[in-house]
Amino acid sequence: MSFFKKIFSSEKKETLDKGLEKSKSSFFSKLTKAVAGKSKVDDEVLDNLEEVLVSSDVGVDTTLKIIDRIEERVAKDKYLGTDELNKILREEIAALLSETNSGEDTEYTIPADKKPYVLMVVGVNGVGKTTTIGKLAHQFNKKGLKVVLGAADTFRAAAIDQLQVWADRVGVPIVKQSMGSDPASVAFDALQSGVAQDADVIIIDTAGRLHNKVNLMKELTKVKKVMQKVIGDAPHDVLLVLDGSTGQNAFEQAKQFTAATEVTTLAVTKLDGTAKGGVVIGISDQFQIPVKYIGVGEGIEDLQVFNKYEFVDSFFKK
């Protein structure tokens, strides 16, 4: 289908197909049952489809939007066969994602007029935040961009150590202080260091505690204000990392973080080990924040730039 352009390399697309296999298999087994014995998309099929989408972690509100879109198609086309349902779902979900995601990007890019480009990464512990930072650093480094990491998650010694491991692995400098240091102070030092080294990208890790939203908000606001003393419009991007395998819990985390700070982009990780890939569709739609990266494997290359066409194509490929 020409609508779904083949713009990924075949290797990346294979990784994406494989990463979404569990989600796809689960979805199609449910969809097959939903339309069993039916040749026409009628009210019963739509009710069953609604249940399939909700149970696939697309989320209730987004599911209702998709059902409304399909009902409009049914009303317009008068007769819609169940054999066409997969094609229509692909088109309508891609159209829904278009409202938030440009869908054309397949490369790791940064704006040419922002140097150094400051990326602040937020998310609870355990979602793959540090791994995502490491993989991003690798991708930017591979493109010949100079990267500096800032270990501003100073509440866990393990967080600083993990980021150091990634810095060593990727071969990029890291700015860190001891555990318990002021996160804003680390961020300040990292930006000063990045400017002095003529860095292209500075990636700042932050603490992943959600037990007190007020404290989190104060802390992230302070980190931002201190960074702006060095680079007036920093951070240029606030990336929230969510664990896709947690399904509806990822929605809750997104709700908490978007209330605590201005999140500009999302990364959804661990999609390869779960049947909850539909969460990407729901989160993108409900929060109206673009999904920029998805994690579809353990390898250093398995963090991909999110492309809605390729994602939908892989999710609905029979």
Task: Kindly describe this structure.
The protein is of the alpha/beta class and about 325 residues long. It folds into two domains: about 90 residues, Four Helix Bundle (Hemerythrin (Met), subunit A), CATH 1.20.120.140; about 190 residues, Rossmann fold. About 50% of the residues lie in helices and about 10% in strands. It contains twelve helices and eight strands. An eight-stranded mixed sheet has the order 3-2-4-1-5-6-7-8, sandwiched between helices. A hairpin with a 7-residue loop joins strand 7 and strand 8. Helix 4 packs across helix 11 and helix 6 packs parallel to helix 7. It comes from Kordia algicida OT-1. It catalyses: GTP + H2O = GDP + phosphate + H(+). One of its GO terms (biological process) is SRP-dependent cotranslational protein targeting to membrane. Keywords: Cell membrane, Cytoplasm, GTP-binding, Hydrolase, Membrane, Nucleotide-binding, Receptor. It is a peripheral membrane protein.
